[in-house]
Amino acid sequence: MKWLSGILCTFLLLLGGSHVSAQEIKLVTGRILNKTENKPFDPADVVIYTFNTVGEAEDAYGVLTAEGGGYIFSTNMVSPDASGYYEVRVAETGAIIVKAGAGKDMCVKENVDYRMEINFSIEGGIILPPATTTAGLTEPAPMKERNVMNGNRLEVSNTIPLPDHFGKTNARLILQPMLYSGGTDELIKYLRPIVIDGDQYRLTQERRMGYDADNDPLTKYVLEEPLKDTSMIVRWADTVRVDDPDKSYYVNGVIRLEDYNQIYYEKKMLLASARSVRPLKFLQYTMDLYELDPDEYKEKPRRERRNTAGNISLTFLVGKAKLDDADTTNKAHLDRLKGDLLNIVQGEGSQLKEFFITGIASPDGSYQSNLKLARERMKYALSQITSVLSKHVRDRVYMKTEAEVAPWSAVVDLLKADSLMTEAAGLQEIIDKYPGNHDAQSIRIRQLPYYKSVVVDYLPKLRTVRYEYNYELYRELTPEEIMDRYENDEDYRSGRKEFALYEFWHLFQMVKDPDELEVLYKRAYDASVKESGRPWALAANNLALSYLRKDKADTSILAPLVDATIKRVNVIERRADGTVNSVINPEAVVANQISMFLKTRNFERASVLAQILPDSEKNRLIKAFTLCLGGYYTGGDTPEEKQQAKDVFNVVANSTPLNKVVMCLAIDNPAYTSMAAGAMKDLPQDDGLTYYLWAIIKCRESQQAQDFDAFMIEMDAETWLLRAFQADKKYLGLASADGDILESVFKNASDSYEAGTVM
Q1: How many Å apart are CA 734 and CA 248, to the nearest integer?
Q2: What 8-state DSSP symbol labels residue 45?
Q3: Which of 35, 233, 521, 724 is the right S-S partner for 121, CB 3.0 to 4.6 Å?
Q4: What is the Cα gyration radius of the chain?
Q5: Where are the beta strands (DSSP E) in 292-435?
């Protein structure tokens, strides 16, 4: 253990056999926490000793806390796991000693006294290396930090030794950390500050605030430990939620000292560099795609009102409300429209409800006479169009005619469209000169020299007839009719007219092209939202699957169908009459939304939804990998959470040989590092990733070694890292921001790479 490096080589042997208690040996469990940081210690820094008698424990405690230390024999010696949890077998009248570092304060003894759970909360927990003392310091000096990206949580910490006479009992120390983007150096947000008040400052501040702590906005950040004029250590730790865990972040801090009147000291410092440990950066995973059963989400056909609109060109005799029989297109247009109406009134389950027709006259001539003629023509056209309908049908159809006179500005638009800018400007000048006076405009425009040669030819284009009819359909179209409409009716194919939801259901089964299907899914999704305010689950899930297959992500698609506050899937919401209104949290939808969140790197939201999915063989992998990526593969506060973390770890670790190495390295302690090294034999040996993982392992091992051994292991790490760079240059950029690679190892390996050293 690192903390043993400060112990002098003085050995005290506790001779003689230990007395075996007549009491039973019991399993005792508990958790060991750093009280200052409210988190577990590094397991490598903690040793748990057990003794079957209190007397043995008292003797050993005296040795462990004596100046210079010593060596002891105990019944058992173990370390906790990464969450601080431990379990030992010890006599029910025995004792337990926990040593979490050098110094008497870091060693705690507890008598078992028939208890089955004993928790330890120890002050401190970040031990200065032997070469680091506060005696020679003149200013605060942050130590080497450790940052870990766990899911969407960036865990940062540092230890700042303060020299003698730096603080004062009548002063306040404020440490303000700030989170920055490692890529842009943009300030993201201010983090929770640390405030340490001297005893005198605290008393005076209470009086200044009128003995109301709420008057001091920094009161809630003040630590219990007072600021002293002797050397002390400021321990800072925080967990910050970040939106994108793939980006790099760093934390700068400003430390200030102030008395009652002024800030008399201020210094900026780096609290956490952009080099972070990302335990799961090499995790292999793919998520299954979950489909809904189409038969369970089939929309029933229902009576629907449909509308059809269009324009036809009819030629009338000049100045008369009668069609020009010489123009054969008149008959063709009328016959087509008549045929459409007949198909509706004679069709099975359909009924014509409304028919509207609007005639538009050209602007030449008197406005009132043009309007009157347009009205007469529309009445005539209506009688011609509806002549194929029986009186019984006509009496039950709401009909309406309207007439309009096109403005001269419409002619201007037509001229501009044909690039006749000079002529268009001439008309526009007259329109602007006589605004709102159609007849005055007409008189002046007819006097233009190019009126007959140019303008007259555009007037027939404005003499149009616009119609619209609405009908209700009472029967379900056959799949063949729906497919025919999709393939041959451009209005339906383009989306100008929309299919009913049950028609979309049939198209989902019949259309084969993936790109066309994605368009149909989106149209059906939008149509269902427009119709009921809520997306149709089948269309939404199919659209999400189409996106996922293309490696696209949009978490808004499925969001309306998922309620994370309801901790179950397939919750049926019924109407007052007992019929099913909707299904909340369809299992497939929840699973696919998890995949969406994973693609957007929102591990936190994905982990919440994973807890909703039921435990089943089908869901085993998606739940395990999601919780793992969210950081829930170790620790836990309750027995259930601890068991879940173990299950997650085992499922993921046993999924692939690479994942076994990754997961062992994710539990950052010597035992698991050794397990990772043992699992490396199952990876491809001549591979850049394998070289890189060996570099991480060697960096970890060097931290556990001393002096020359550590130096030699670091050299080994440099060799592996250089081989990784030579295999694939991408590892150069990765290692530059990887907290698992020692900075000295990275520098030496990158220098060798740039120098062209060949391995």
Answers
A1: 11
A2: G
A3: 35
A4: 41
A5: 304-312, 350-361, 398-405
